[in-house]
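TA notes, week 10

Several of you asked for a full example with nothing omitted. So below is the full record: structure tokens for the whole chain, then the designed sequence directly under it. When grading your own attempts, check the secondary structure regions first.
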């Protein structure tokens, strides 16, 4: 089996290195990642300027390809140019920081997995709660059995998943909850400051998510210390509205 491994934290990220080691249990691993950190870029792609890529080594050990672009760019270029064949699996991570709730919409980590799913490949975003001394090796160890099970469950045309691991799950007997993504709005506040030249600027406060609702979601399950798994889809069509709207009279005025 061939796995394409990427991320949004960059080719030198420790989470990427830990995941690469763990994924070799499953077979061959091709690492193609952004050259620099691309957190929060969402599903941006590069098409107005050329992309460059460089093979990166640690001494004689090959680390992978570094792409001077976004996570989605890295996946596109990997499948087109660098993978010896179409991958059987795309893993994005391990990200340094959770990607839960509405953060999924901004996440470069999740976007890379979505890009893999575009190609009909089972794709999984993997994220670990931020910690200055994060134990990525342990997080990778926890991710592998989940990945194995998802490969057995996924459809031949590929599926898309978001896996989050809180710090609390790294010790003891961790539990995994299959939960929906929270869509509660938060993190909309900005702190106004003044620079040395007297000009105002604004810094996003990144406020924590609000208290959980009665419905369990990825945010509430992570807060309770559980790992979370959320199946995602990239088709944004509102199927209920499309059926209703299609029945209406859309006759346009003649010229």
């Amino acid at each position: 089996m061939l796995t394409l491994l990427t991320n949004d934290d960059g080719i030198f990220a420790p989470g990427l290195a830990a995941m690469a080691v763990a994924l070799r249990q499953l077979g061959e691993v091709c690492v193609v990642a952004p050259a620099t950190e691309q957190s929060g870029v969402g599903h941006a792609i590069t098409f107005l300027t050329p992309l460059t890529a460089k093979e990166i080594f640690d001494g004689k050990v090959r680390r992978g390809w570094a792409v001077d672009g976004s996570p989605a760019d890295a996946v596109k270029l990997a499948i087109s140019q660098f993978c010896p064949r179409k991958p059987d699996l795309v893993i994005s991570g391990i990200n340094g920081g959770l990607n839960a709730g509405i953060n999924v919409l901004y996440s470069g980590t999740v976007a890379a997995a979505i890009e893999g799913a575009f190609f009909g490949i089972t794709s999984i975003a993997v994220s670990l709660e931020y910690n200055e001394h994060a134990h990525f090796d342990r997080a990778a160890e926890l991710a592998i059995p989940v990945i194995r099970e998802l490969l057995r469950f996924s459809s031949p045309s590929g599926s898309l998943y978001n896996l989050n691991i809180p710090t609390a799950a790294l010790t003891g007997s961790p539990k995994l909850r299959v939960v929906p993504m929270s869509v509660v709005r938060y993190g909309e506040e900005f702190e106004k400051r003044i620079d040395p030249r007297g000009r105002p600027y604004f810094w996003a406060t990144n406020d924590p998510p609000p208290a959980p609702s009665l419905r369990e979601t990825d945010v509430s399950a992570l807060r309770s210390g559980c790992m979370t798994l959320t199946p995602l889809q990239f088709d944004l069509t509102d199927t209920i509205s499309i059926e209703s709207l299609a029945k209406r009279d859309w006759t346009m005025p003649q010229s």
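The two ends are 59 Å apart (CA to CA). Use that as a sanity check on your answer.
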